[in-house]
Amino acid sequence: MSSEVVLPKSGNKEDIYNHLLEQMPYLFPEGDHYLSLLSNFSALLKESFPVISWVGFYLVSDEKLVLGPFQGKIACTEIQSGRGVCGKVMVTRETEIVANVHEFPGHIACDSGSNSEIVVPLVKDGILLGVLDLDSYEFSAFDEVDKKYLEQMVGQLLSTTTIPKI
To answer: By the number of CB atoms within 10 A of the CB, which of 63, 87, 111, 155 ranks highest?
Structure first.
């Protein structure tokens, strides 16, 4: 992987996502270890979007989610299926956008400063491997644009690596 990503000097969120998608084959080459890829993927998103306060992965282990590579404050280490936003996505396998986490029933507040969240499932060959979780201190920080591009980025990432069941 290249050690530096040069982002467009100007442009909107879609421009940045498109740039990142174009760079992904070079940033995340096939065959790299999944922990390295997930770690750098988290760093890439955190570096690219200042609105993100926390970004990382929770991986499926024994019917629950366990903390994987991330960028941000210390986080919850286990999330039970169906609990909070990540646990809901574990069940539904559909991306969930939450404009105000304080209004989400059963929200798990690892960082009390978080106000909005988006969670994208990691599904490969019909098997749920985990979730990508992004938080923000801003309300309504994530939208359908984020959903569209994060799902594409996750798809590209999963095509280059194998994430084992842990």
So the answer is: 87
Helix (H, G, I), strand (E, B) or coil at 27: helix
Question: Residue 42 carries which side chain, given as an amino acid letter?
Answer: S
Host H or E run for residue 88: helix 84-92
Q: 50: which residues sit within 8 A by CB, 6+ positions away?
A: none
- Exposed, middle or buried, 38 (CB in 10 Å: 0-12/13-18/19+)? buried
Span 53-96, pLDDT tens digits: 999 999 999 999 999 999 999 999 999 999 999 999 999 999 99
Do residues 15 and 30 lie in contact, with contact meaning Cβ atoms separated by under 8 Å? no
pTM for the model stands at 0.95
Tokens of residue 84, six digits = 């909070």
